[in-house]
Amino acid sequence: MAYRIGLDRLEHIRVLYADWSTVSDEDIQEWRALWWRIYRLDTYANLASGTPYLIDDTLIDTSFNLSQTANPSHAIFLPPNSAGLAELLPAITSDPETLLDNIHNITIASMRQAGLMIRIHMLRWQAGMLSQITAVDRQLTTLRLALPPGWLNPHRNAFINESPLAHHARLITVYHLRMAQLLLSVAECSARRADDWLSAWQRVLETCQDIAGLASQWDSAYCMTVDPAITFTIFTTLIFLDLQRKCELVATDDLHSSIDHDITVLHLQLKHFGTIWTQARLLTCKVPTSFRHVW
Questions:
Q1: How many domains does the chain have?
Q2: Of these four, 4, 230, 251, 276, which has the most CB atoms within 10 Å of its CB?
């Protein structure tokens, strides 16, 4: 329906279609915001189900959200591949009004690229897979380093008077980046030789711990203000923490205790979302029974 209406090509739609010629700039902005929410939905839905994305990132002619005072000639567009995502950040950070929303868009785009690596693995296209994973991983690293200072810090930045609402909106973008890293690490495990997979498996644990660190800063009062699809990240992390806990490489009591704590924190966060959203409640019911001795 979005394609049929033309939401993917809003920048020229008033020229291409007479029906749109009388639509105001304010209404175009609302349609633009709707398009990027559909883009996010496409990402979450297909990552969760393992199906191909319906939106082709290379064929989008709708700019990111613009503030009311922004010059349309300075519109920001999604690059044809994730290698260009970091280059958008200077323009995005120059507009505080749309900063959180537009960084959300590029972290979603980064997560899409990582999810594509998982799909390639599922289709068993092994030729050149490791080099593709490495390329996407480098792009993710560049994006993380290009973000504003302190962006990845899970704590609220009181020194710049960051509001709790803005803090949680920022946390969601960090969840995206951590999920992208988790997906890449899992794909890398399958792509490496049996004697060379340990470093990738360790990265899986590191990323799960990072995600649990985000959950530890979560205030359940803000579950209604963010996209509940973030619960798929929480659920995925719980699964891999359970696998790590069962792994014979986890040999120390301290590490076992740390993993158990992370599982508890993530499960409680999932339950908070479950008090509001059916999806989260269903995911809570599907967590492995082996977790129950931890709770």
A1: 2
A2: 230
